[in-house]
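Archive entry. Fields below.
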Amino acid sequence: MILFSKHLKLSVAAVGGLALCAHGAQAPQHININQLSTTVEDVVVPLPNEIFGALNKLGAVNWKEHVRSDKGPNFTERPRIALLLGAVIADGFIAVQAEDAPTVKDIGQRVLALAKGIGVGNSITPHAKAIIEAADKRNWENVRQELDRTQNSVQQAMNEVHDEKLSQLVSLGGWLRGTEVLTSVVKQHFSTDGAELLHQPDLLAYFQTRLKSMPEFNLPIIHQIQEALGEVKPLIDVGNAHIPAESVKKVNEITTRLGTGIVTRD
Amino acid sequence: MNGFAKILFRTSSVLVAFVIMQRASFASVDDAQSFALQAAEPYVKQGFQVREDYWGGDLASGEKKAVRQQLFKGNEYWFWLGTEVDRAKVSVHIYDSDGKLAEEPDSWEKGHFAAAHIIPKTTGSYFIIVSVEESPEERTHWALVYGFR
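PREDICTED_STRUCTURE:
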């Protein structure tokens, strides 16, 4: 980000004109996807607000009823803290959608406490402060940006100390909470476009693969998530077919159950 | 004095060469990311939220890399590619899961910047193909960032 700021001052104006003077890109109309399989990079897990944004475009959502502000227990197991941290960051995005400043501020504090619990508090302190300040000013765009930065900083700090698996659990916790809320909204006002937002089979496969590589995290919640993802897969991996209301309901039941497990002591 | 000037000139030349080599060797994916973010900057003013997370690496001239990404129907996305190598030419294109070109016609490439625009017709996985078309370097760092609204 320091480099970004430095270069930004020098060349924003120049880059701003790029789209106007750049030529149209020539690219083949079709490629053979199977030939790419050996060179494909890992996915970047979408943030919950990416899904919520698409959901908002389908009709008004009463985000206030999905806001969750209870602090939950303090875990000592690092994988549990990582899952909870991801879920709490997702709760932050929900509170932003609901424009609920007091909850956003509570979540800023909670994120900091959880980050300290897994030893990455130092990298989060400035973001937590920025979240609280932006919530005070009701600057929702800044809160969203800081929540994204928070997740990124937590994961970078974990990767730096070779805790990539915990970093992946943060993403998974956020994805599960986002999916719980997505299915809750779509279940209430079903539409095929809303249900289509669940069509994420590659992302689900990505999480399944990652969980398989974590045998050292021998915790009931991890096993429950592994089993549950196996239940969810056939419900959302439907190819070109529509995802029916019944499947949305089932995914909601599964993710709600997991969400309760993530925030509850065994 | 003439001999001293020669020694000074030679020493300075070696130092300059050393500094240039150091700069080249310290160039990184982070530098490439700063250029990708520069390409994204004008779009932020249009309401695009740029993700903090990004992909990066290095490629030889003519080499490609595919990135798989989940996109959601209803959102609009831009993917911005950058490298710190001034004289490199890079490109980025988006294909759907059947391998069909899925990007909008206003996607662009200009030297060491390129961008691809997509309004997904379906929710699912898409392939973003990044390529270093030309470069004076043996390996060229690249970084890809994306934004949505």
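CURATOR_NOTE: Residues 164-188 of chain A form the longest helix (25 residues).
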